[in-house]
């Protein structure tokens, strides 16, 4: 708990019902198990307070074509900024450029 709050103090100020509980329930509905959530939250606490977390996870899951959530946890833990990127203006144009050059 101390590590979580020191990494992202705004967790304390977040609305419990509307933000924290909602994001945790949605992550759980996606299939994340407790150990995955612990790894994810300790490495990237913004998943608790960012309202776009679920949408971004769903996009990454469909783009990568993986049903294994452990893969997503691994990717997000390696790149903490990935979930902060806007899908339309941040990720999609970069993917289009990589596809244009045959890299994706």
Instruction: List the domain count as a whole number.
Output: 1
Question: Roughly how much helix do the residues carry, as a percent range?
Answer: 55-70%
Separation, N- and C-terminal Cα atoms: 39 Å
Query: Main β-sheet: number of strands, strand sense, barrel status?
Result: none
Q: Quick one: overall form?
A: globular
> pLDDT below 50 for ≥5 consecutive residues: which ranges?
none
Write up what this structure looks like.
The chain is mainly alpha-helical and 104 residues long. It contains 6 helices and no strands. It has one domain. It has helices spanning 2-7, 16-30, 34-43, 53-64, 69-78, 87-100. Helix 3 packs parallel to helix 5 (69-78).
List the helices and strands and how they pair.
Blueprint: H1 2-7, H2 16-30, H3 34-43, H4 53-64, H5 69-78, H6 87-100
Helix pairs in contact: 3-5
Short description:
The protein has one domain (2-100). Helices cover 64% and strands 0% of the residues.
List keywords for this structure.
single chain, 104 residues, mainly alpha, globular
